[in-house]
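WARN retry 2 of 3 for item q-0093 after timeout on previous attempt; input resubmitted unchanged.
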Amino acid sequence: MRKLMTFWRDQRGAAILELAFVAPIIGGMAAVSFAAWDVASRQQDMRAALEVGAEYYMNGGPSDAIAKTAAADAWRNAPEDAVVTSERICRCGTTVTICTNMCANNAPPSVYVHLTASGTAPESMFTPHQTAERVVRVR
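OK item q-0093 returned
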């Protein structure tokens, strides 16, 4: 019985056991933190690229093709399937209308460009497919 009590009170090796229990938790937290940073970084890259396309319109650029190309070229670390699209939406007040029609007050409709960037990163832990959007009023 005395040897059992001596063994139970012996503190040698306690630190290594604590480390064995805590190390997987710390490693898991580090992996999750890196994965979250990766998702945020890719999302920020997409938004920055869309801002380049939006700035093109805000500086008076009329071409959707050039805006899409500028946004695609500005997308750092774009995935292989990266796509930038644009869609024009015309409104008279809150009502969506055809861009060539005049509004009820004989004014031209407001024109908005809806830029969308999307891509897939299969190595991502949380969200392999990401999408970002930016709406710019052109007129």
